[in-house]
Design brief:
Blueprint (H helix, E strand, L loop, with lengths): L2 E3 L2 E3 L2 H8 L8 E3 L3 H7 L12 E7 L3 H9 L5 E6 L9 E3 L7 H15 L10 H13 L8 E3 L7 E12 L5 E11 L3 E3 L2 H11 L2 E2 L1 H16 L3 E10 H4 L10 E8 H4 L1 H11 L2
Parallel strand pairs: 2-6, 3-4, 4-5, 8-11
Antiparallel strand pairs: 1-2, 7-10, 8-9, 9-12, 12-13
Helix pairs in contact: 4-5, 6-7
Length: about 280
């Protein structure tokens, strides 16, 4: 069922009708907003879950929705047309016939979010959905680059860049976190163009991320590209998801580190790196 189109599995109305053909139309179905409502409408829909014999949705993705509804209504079966936890659909991107796509539609979804909290028609917010989607596309699109390396010509001492500014978005709240990266390596026959250290930080920071993962990804990428004797990465950042919400602690800095090779095994090398980034 479904056709592949550019990595997307397209589900048609015909596919859906075939899927539910054997479902009992004498039962009453409550469709979870909004995808489940389309399915219920093809069967025997009711307006409230209390009236229903079956809770129905368009798809099961992580299983969280199914878990929530079965806990609320343990006596009612939960059914879905597509179950992404099964091998048939696991890891696939599913597009159902009522789902919109394209930048204009994404802006429309953002408009609905704004509408929940404020009046999107007031002057200051009128173009905010368009601007926000443009910002997200720009920030989350960091192109790969040529990792230019050169012969080290015998250079075997630490190469260090400090105070590389970086910005990222917390994957839990989509709130910014920002700070500085300190990156060092000890050559093993190869050195890298100096701009590539900062580019590597940006490559991994410009995503929905957490600080720990960026630190590890930067270190491992440098090690892979250079086969260095050692790589050291330290990130220090402020998280607005902590200062603007939750515990609301301001001017709090979080430091993460990743040491590979001699920086992990040799205390002198590690201490030299740590002393240099404190200057």
């Amino acid at each position: 069922m479904g056709q592949e189109n550019g990595g997307v599995t397209l589900i048609t109305w015909q596919d859906i009708k075939k899927k539910i053909m054997g479902w009992n139309r004498n039962l009453k179905y409550y469709g979870i907003p909004r995808g489940g409502q389309y399915i219920a409408a093809l069967l025997n829909p009711v307006d409230t879950p209390e009236e229903a014999d079956v809770i129905v949705d368009d798809l099961i993705d992580s299983g969280a929705t199914k878990k929530r509804w079965t806990e609320l209504y343990p006596d009612k079966p939960f059914m879905a047309v597509i179950d992404k936890t099964t091998p048939e659909y696991s890891g696939k991107w599913i597009q159902l016939p009522w789902e919109e796509k394209g930048e204009i539609d994404v802006e429309e979804h953002m408009l609905r979010v704004l509408q929940y909290f404020d009046d999107p028609n007031r002057e200051g917010l009128r173009d905010t959905p368009k601007r926000y989607i443009k910002f997200m596309k720009e920030f989350l699109t960091t192109p790969e680059f040529n990792f230019t390396v050169f012969d080290s010509e015998g250079m075997d001492e630490m190469v260090l860049q400090t105070n590389i500014p970086f910005y990222s978005l917390c994957e839990h709240h989509i709130a910014p976190f920002f700070g500085y990266a300190h990156v060092a390596y000890i050559p093993n026959g190869k050195i890298v163009g100096i701009s590539k250290l900062a580019r590597t930080v940006d490559l991994y920071a410009h995503n929905l991320q957490n600080q720990e993962r960026i630190t590890q990804q930067v270190a491992e990428r440098l090690q892979t590209e250079l086969n260095a004797l050692g790589v050291a990465v330290v990130l220090t950042a402020q998280h607005t998801c902590m200062s603007m919400r939750g515990v609301k602690k301001h001017d709090t800095w979080t430091t993460t580190s990743k040491m590979l090779g001699v920086f992990k095994d040799d205390l002198n090398a590690r201490n030299e790196f740590l002393s240099l980034i404190k200057q």
